[in-house]
Amino acid sequence: MDQKLGRRDVLKHSAALGVVAVVGSAACSKPKALSCVDTTALSSADAQTRMTLQYVDNSVEPGKKCTSCQQFVPAAPDSCGTCKVVKGPINPNGYCKSFVAKPA
Ligand code: SF4
Question: Which of 56, 63, 83, 97 is the most buried (most CB within 10 A)?
């Protein structure tokens, strides 16, 4: 059997591979992690409170995240919320020492 490819065949297959590569890379791109750490607009007192309460953008406390805290004020989906205690942007996945679980 003759396995020679014509110029037209090569171009056709190359175009198909290009489409697969573009679609594949778009489907595999990870969503960017939400970052709520910009405290440049805070007063030094508010920034100090944030540090004293040891706010972190990603909780390492099992079952304790800002989104399950009574003090959390959510915003639009996939955006930083606010907090009644800690000033500045608050990540729904964050945590601080003032965590108070929402009632069940
Ligand atoms: Fe998050 Fe702490 Fe505010 Fe609760 S008090 S929402 S844990 S920053």
Answer: 83
What is residue 18's three-state secondary structure? helix
Quote the ligand 1 centre to 42 CA distance (angstroms). 16
Is the beta carbon of 95 within 6 A of some atom in ligand 1? yes
Give the position, in ligand 1's atom list, of the atom nearest the Cα of 73. 6
pLDDT in single tens digits along all 104 residues of the chain: 455 666 666 556 555 544 444 444 445 566 689 999 999 999 999 999 999 999 999 999 999 999 999 999 999 999 999 999 999 999 999 999 999 999 98
Which ligand 1 atom sits nearest the alpha carbon of residue 83?
A: 3
CA angle 37, 39, 41 (to 5 degrees): 145
